[in-house]
Amino acid sequence: MNTSKHSRQRDAILEVLKSTKVHPTADWVYSEVRKTIPNISLGTVYRNLAKLSDENIIVKLGLGTSVEHFDGNPEPHYHVMCTECGAISDIESEPLKELNAWAEKLFKGEIYKHSAIFFGRCDECQK
Amino acid sequence: MNTSKHSRQRDAILEVLKSTKVHPTADWVYSEVRKTIPNISLGTVYRNLAKLSDENIIVKLGLGTSVEHFDGNPEPHYHVMCTECGAISDIESEPLKELNAWAEKLFKGEIYKHSAIFFGRCDECQK
DNA sequence: TATAATAATAGTAACAATTACTATTATTGA
DNA sequence: TCAATAATAGTAATTGTTACTATTATTATA
């Protein structure tokens, strides 16, 4: 059974994540959610982001940045980070699953997934 | 001109990194280096790891873990992390540069590099 | 080889992101 | 409506890392 209880705060956090493409940090989510729930606490944001990603409703992107970024889209896909402005964009394609087989040939053990991050310059910064 | 001065501490830190395959954290390096330089400070370890990676002598692996890992081998290559024991291993191959062109087709902007991390189970943990 | 300039150090304090704690509030099923 | 308890707000604590400062070590040159 699911011992979870519904909460307005969690709904609002998920709503914020689902309706943006910026792959925000916890702090960004916090400041957005405060527009509708002004006294929500930052701890609540962190706790729910953790809960939602444990349940695979959202994903915590381990991009190697000092601050964690989240994605409201749980479908596996790659990302590009602009090295100039830091913006994170989606690569609209499924991950290349053949890479796992490729890597497995070079590794003693089994491989079942991978993640990748591309670095470049977004069109905004190219202008 | 190079305004850098030689230091025994930096030598020892680099030596530790060059002679292991474990992709250690700063703290691991610290405890190793203390075996030869017992009163070295953790700040010195961090400062030199930063300096060495700025100079591309080592690399800071942005693996998405909460603690940073370092690699004494600056040649670009992928890694596998065992989800059971956390061990990080090398994939002994050059990165697939064709991936950049592939991703660029799906992105508005230019892409010039990428990094990837594979997840699996190492042979030790399979037993 | 002595010296003067300064990079690097040890030790410690500060910092930022995140997590844990606790008393109170909200949700839920009976 | 009520009792059980999940979730909250607010705050304190923790963790990994960086910054600061007085002292020490390295180096180029006299």
Explained architecture:
The structure is a homodimer of 127-residue chains. Chain A is of the alpha+beta class and 127 residues long. Chain A has two domains: 2-59, Winged helix-like DNA-binding domain superfamily/Winged helix DNA-binding domain (Arc Repressor Mutant, subunit A), CATH 1.10.10.10; 78-126, Ferric-uptake regulator, C-terminal dimerisarion domain (Dna Ligase, domain 1), CATH 3.30.1490. In chain A, 34% of the residues lie in helices and 21% in strands. Chain A has five helices and five strands, in the order αααββββαβα. Chain A has helices at residues 8-18, 26-33, 42-54, 98-104, 123-126, and strands spanning 59-61, 69-71, 79-82, 88-90, 109-122. In chain A, the strands form two sheets. Chain A has a three-stranded mixed sheet. A two-stranded antiparallel sheet of chain A has the order 1-2. In chain A, α1 packs across α2 (26-33) and α1 (8-18) packs across α3 (42-54). Chain A is globular, with a radius of gyration of 17 Å. The termini of chain A are far apart. At the A-B interface, α4, β5 and α5 of A face α4, β5 and α5 of B. β5 of chain A pairs antiparallel with β5 of chain B, so a sheet runs across the interface. Chain A binds a DNA duplex (30 and 30 nucleotides) through α1 and α3.
Low-confidence segments of chain A: none
Task: Give the helix proportion of chain A (percent range).
Answer: 25-40%
CATH superfamily of the largest domain in chain A: Winged helix-like DNA-binding domain superfamily/Winged helix DNA-binding domain
Which percent band covers the strand fraction of chain A?
15-25%
